[in-house]
Design a protein that fits this description.
By secondary structure, this protein is mainly alpha-helical. The protein folds into 2 domains: 419 residues, Growth Hormone, Chain: A, CATH 1.20.1250; 53 residues. The protein is 76% helix and 0% strand.
């Protein structure tokens, strides 16, 4: 009979990782070394996410300073999502082959330097280029951080560690969105990047002191897989970004050619990955139910969450509906990310108690419910219902992320932990990009006019997010149930009280 982990996924012999004793300099530390590693990698994730949401409120100021168009300035926000999604699979395997600590360190250093350079950008073109380069560097940090956590934590503890990791990814945008509006109004948008640098520098120093190197099996690097993944995913995201909401019509030659070529490259990528010895993305693992379910759950949850986050901000700032200022919108949407940060660690313990299937399914239902609440709003409605929709969405994603991530990493061999982390984040990043583009496309398609979309258009966008969340329930139901031994232990603990 196969053993089940606390998150309900199957623990396979190939997924076992030898947990080494802590380095000598941490032998007397009051905090267990594995938790020091978790804190360290979370600081890097926290630092890299500070400007993700804050920059949304700064877009009008950046456009005014550079005197550029709305089409050009939109790339300042969308470029990081696009390039991060494209390069995550490649860097996951880079971490396994050349070292997870080295990949994390170099990614963190380059992210810090390039983000600081954004503050000195002389034009919008330079700003977009530096933002894209910074996103590529951060694509190295994310899968490496998950691999470093997986190496230090045994399988049954990972889901709790991933809960704290999810909280870090959520609290960073909270601080960014709350302080972003105030910083922009008081000092200017460039200080968003100046202020991010000290956090990034602190994470680099902590990484240099705490982290130790780990690698997978040293094999020949998958060059063709990297080329096909970067080009294929890049064209997929370009078609989504430029087609529904960009300058290309649905049946335009540019969109049709881009779509056909992108699908062909992705198919070629899958065929190549099935044959190479060390693929950058372990596509064979998608045959395992828990692995594919975890990736899919992250995709659909982030589709609705990030798409809803973007649409909510636009809706509240729309003059004919609420007409709130940038600072007020920032404070209004902050509870969504704050609730995600609170629920992330809690979800780790709930998963250990009830299993990944129940926890993640409950989370997906909460996301769907949040979309329903936001879709039924009337123009100018009070903040109470808006707050309810935002909080439900944050709680929902917080419940989905940890069990889905643990299910994926527990299915991977020790040599593929970086690649497994890349698969998780590819699902999340790709879901975010597609969700934002799709829900924005629905809004523009149903808009009364380009200048005043109307509440009906926003409601339809939220309904699209609800449909995505409901489809996502199919994937969460494929996650494992609670470990029988864990369930018995909880029952014994209850009756002893």
């Amino acid at each position: 009979m196969q053993a089940l982990d606390d998150d309900g996924s199957t623990v396979r012999p190939s997924a076992a990782v030898e947990v080494l004793p802590p380095p000598a300099r941490f032998a007397r530390s009051p905090i267990a070394y594995r938790w020091l590693v978790l804190i360290t990698v979370c600081t890097g994730v926290f630092a890299s996410g500070l400007t993700i949401t804050a920059l949304t409120t700064a877009v009008p100021f950046i456009r005014r300073d550079f005197g550029t168009s709305f089409a050009a300035i939109s790339w300042v926000v969308s470029a990081p999502f696009l390039f991060r999604s494209i390069f995550i699979p490649a860097f996951g395997k880079v971490a396994d082959r050349w070292g997870r600590r080295s990949t994390w360190m170099w990614g963190s250093v380059l992210t810090a330097v390039l983000s600081l350079g954004c503050g000195f950008a002389p034009s919008v073109g330079w700003l977009i280029a530096l933002r894209a380069a910074s996103a590529i560097a951060s694509a190295a940090v994310v899968p490496a951080s998950l691999a470093l956590i997986s190496v230090e934590f045994v399988a049954h503890e990972r889901v709790k560690a991933f809960g704290w990791w999810s909280a870090s990814t959520a609290l960073s945008p909270v601080l960014g969105v709350v302080l972003g509006g105030l910083v922009v109004e008081a000092f200017g948008w460039r200080w968003l990047f100046y202020g991010q640098f000290p956090f990034s520098a602190l994470s680099v120093v902590a990484g240099a002191v705490v982290l130790r190197e780990s690698k997978g099996e040293r094999t020949r690097f998958d060059v063709w897989g990297t080329v096909l993944s970067v080009s294929g995913l890049g064209l997929v995201i370009l078609a989504i970004n430029r087609g529904p909401v960009g300058a290309w019509a649905w049946a335009s030659p540019q969109l049709v050619v881009c779509a056909v070529v992108s699908v062909s490259l992705v198919v070629a990528f899958v065929l190549v990955e099935r044959r190479v010895v060390a693929p950058i993305l372990p596509v064979h693992l998608f045959a395992r139910r828990a692995f594919s379910a975890g990736v899919a759950a992250n995709f659909f949850a982030n589709f609705a969450y990030m798409g809803g986050f973007f649409i909510t901000s636009l809706m509240l700032a729309e003059p004919d509906l609420w007409g709130w200022s940038a600072g007020r919108v920032s404070l209004a949407v902050a509870p969504r990310a704050l609730s995600l940060g609170i629920m992330g660690p809690v979800a780790g313990f709930l998963t250990a108690r009830f299993g990944g299937r129940r926890t993640a399914t409950a989370g997906m239902l909460l996301i769907a419910a949040s979309m329903v609440v936001l879709a039924t709003l009337e123009a100018g409605a009070g903040y109470g219902m808006i707050l309810l929709g935002l909080v439900l969405s944050g709680f929902g994603l917080g419940l989905v992320g940890p069990p889905a991530t643990a299910a994926v990493t527990n299915e991977a061999a020790a040599d593929d932990l970086g690649a497994a982390g890349a698969a998780v984040n590819l699902g999340a990043s790709f879901g975010s990009s597609v969700g934002i583009a799709t829900m924005q496309a629905v809004t523009l398609t149903a808009a009364v006019s380009a200048d005043a979309p109307g509440m009906h258009a926003f409601s339809l966008a939220f309904e699209a997010g609800m449909i995505a969340a409901l489809i996502g329930i199919v994937s969460t139901l494929a996650l494992g149930g609670p470990n029988r031994a864990t369930r018995v232990a909880w029952m014994l603990r209850f009756f002893r009280r």
